[in-house]
Amino acid sequence: MKNLLLSLAVGLPLAFSAAVASAAEPALPHFDKAHTAIVITDPQNDFLAENGKLYGLLADNLKELGTIKNIETLMATAKSSGVALAVDPLVYNALDVDWSRAGALQRQLLDMKALQRVSLNDPEGFEGSGADFYEPYKTYIYDGKTIVVAPHKMYGPESNDLIYQLRARDIDTVILGGMVANLCVDSHMRALMENGFKVYVVKDAVAAPGADAYNAALVNYGMIANGVLTTKDAVDALRR
């Protein structure tokens, strides 16, 4: 951090500053498994299935990083290592379209009916829809042990029960991945940090709409989170 601040002070490019800050790879963190959760944001069809409404925006980054497989690896590791797994979906329903204060991107999602179901208590049309969970992940999500929190409506968990669910289980450390790197993942990282959790973001278990958005997210992760890991790092740390 000292090198990063010094570089910024003398006007060196931020990319160079980040490289200086990460030149020495830190040791893997020690996770107290009883107080650690893997949290995955938005593991849903519209982001991850090839016919999803938002898949095309993320496809290149998903393939480059191996994101879909890496998220599954994190889920499987949660089950095999005994740490909690929580999923935090983004879901709109038919009544949400009339919002008068939706932001620019949120308005686009509402207008294109992405991540939408009729209502949270109506199963009609939900199975296999864009709002539904990505099919290969359901074996982990529907095992009766995964924490499936109420959907968030913006980007962070302020409008749902994620933080309460984690605190109620004495979780103080989060290993974070999911969709989308510079939006919901970034917002969850910030909210969790503000609420006193340790947060480690898994940089190849996310994806963004293009390299610029992904790199912007990486800069924020490196400056805000307690650590930035690869999927291999996270798995190795949890298997120790």
TrEMBL record:
<dbReference type="InterPro" id="IPR036380">
    <property type="entry name" value="Isochorismatase-like_sf"/>
</dbReference>
<keyword id="KW-0378">Hydrolase</keyword>
<protein>
    <submittedName>
        <fullName>Nicotinamidase-related amidase</fullName>
    </submittedName>
</protein>
<dbReference type="InterPro" id="IPR000868">
    <property type="entry name" value="Isochorismatase-like_dom"/>
</dbReference>
<feature type="domain" description="Isochorismatase-like">
    <location>
        <begin position="36"/>
        <end position="232"/>
    </location>
</feature>
<feature type="signal peptide">
    <location>
        <begin position="1"/>
        <end position="23"/>
    </location>
</feature>
<dbReference type="InterPro" id="IPR050272">
    <property type="entry name" value="Isochorismatase-like_hydrls"/>
</dbReference>
<keyword id="KW-0732">Signal</keyword>
<dbReference type="Pfam" id="PF00857">
    <property type="entry name" value="Isochorismatase"/>
</dbReference>
<dbReference type="GO" id="GO:0016787">
    <property type="term" value="F:hydrolase activity"/>
</dbReference>
